[in-house]
Amino acid sequence: MHAEYGGVVPELASRDHIRRALPLTQHVLRAAGRTLQDIDGIAYTQGPGLAGALLVGTSIAESLAFTLDVPTVGVHHLEGHLLAPLLEENPPAFPFVALLVSGGHTQLMRVSGIGDYELLGDTLDDAAGEAFDKTAKLLGLGYPGGPAVSKLAALGKPGRFKLPRPLLNSDDLNFSFSGLKTAVLTLTNQHALTDETKADIAYEFQEAVTEVLTAKCMAALRETGMDNLIVSGGVGANARLRERLTQAAQRRLCKVSYPRLEFCTDNGAMIAFAGAMRMLHAQQDDYAFTVRPRWDLAELKAP
Ligand SMILES: Nc1ncnc2c1ncn2[C@@H]1O[C@H](COP(=O)(O)OP(=O)(O)OP(=O)(O)O)[C@@H](O)[C@H]1O
Ligand SMILES: [Mg+2]
After folding, report:
1. Which of 20, 130, 146, 246 has the least CB density, counted as fewest CB within 10 Å?
2. Which of 54, 81, 132, 271 to mutate to test the pocket of ligand 1 (most atoms within 8 A of CB)?
3. pLDDT of 284 above 70
4. Domain of residue 22, residue span
5. Tens-place pLDDT, residues 105-159
6. Ligand 2 centre and the CA of 100: distance in Å?
7. Is residue 85 part of a domain?
8. Same domain for 146 and 36
9. How far does the centroid of ligand 1 lie from the alpha carbon of residue 234, in Å?
10. Mean pLDDT value across residues 59-83
């Protein structure tokens, strides 16, 4: 639905939420072999995000919970991403360093427990996923761009192009990806975009992004003295990033954990899990609700 516009159209998204949320709920219950009566609590995404889409999910969750007489908890979208690796077997124990690398965020966090998050580094401009999406657009690939760029990069040759590694040697844990996008734009203007050239640009772009992300993760482990890294968010599905992080972490005798691929991009399981963690600690709302389109993750408190 959004591919035609090259990005998410807010009003289309919220209308589509209205159409899909109840049939999806029924489908998921059926697939899980459960009924509404089996539900002991409802977690929903309260923010940050598009207000219209948030309001649809929130009002359905709160009214369903009211009729079922079960508690609700409003979850922070990024807390969902952050805790997604804990859905896997042998999850890492707190504390750990988290790289949250998605369509809207590129952050390094110190995670000491549920709700105990300290921001170590952030992007000064575009998120890594956004840079993938914009590069895809410049190369004439579809939306979302990350998987398309990464597929094309696998066909590219090393050495033909050289793109910058922004902030690679800065003394902090911050990122910047908008210059990289401009450098890709310059390349696309200078060369005829044959399939081969597009693949070579995609290759070098992916190398540049993953090199910077890997170096900053290792710097964060060094600075915090921790030996556990978790990676989450859509760009965490990138195979080259996983390969580089795994190699670099092995050299430092550190462990890296990832969610399975379908739990990297937005999914309901991660919100349910974060909500369950908070409900276990008896944090619940009454049925009144607000959404928080803008919501800083570092504001969260332990439940
Ligand atoms: N294999 C991949 N390689 C690189 N990027 C990828 C890959 N798969 C997905 N992405 C990128 O991940 C992003 C989507 O991730 P996600 O759903 O976590 O982001 P979002 O929900 O839009 O943003 P946020 O969670 O920050 O609000 C898109 O930018 C997409 O291009
Ligand atoms: Mg997301």
Report:
1. 20
2. 132
3. no
4. 3-80+266-299
5. 999 999 999 999 999 999 999 999 999 999 999 999 987 899 999 999 999 999 9
6. 10
7. no
8. no
9. 3
10. 96
Q: Return the ligand 1 atom nearest residue 266 CA.
A: 17
Q: CA 107, CA 203: separation in Å to the nearest integer? A: 23
Q: In the numeric block, which tokens belong to residue 154?
A: 């696998």
| Count of other CB atoms within 10 angstroms of residue 282 | 9
Indicate the pTM of the whole model: 0.90
Cα of 188 vs centre of ligand 1, distance in Å, is 23
Q: Which two tokens stand for residue 269?
A: 């399981």
CB 158 within 8 A of CB 203: yes
Q: Residue 112 belongs to a domain with what CATH number?
A: 3.30.420.40
Q: Are residues 47 and 172 in the same domain?
A: no
Predicted confidence (pLDDT) per residue in 183-203, tens digit: 999 999 999 999 999 999 999
Report helix, strand or coil for 257: strand
Structural domains in the chain (count): 2
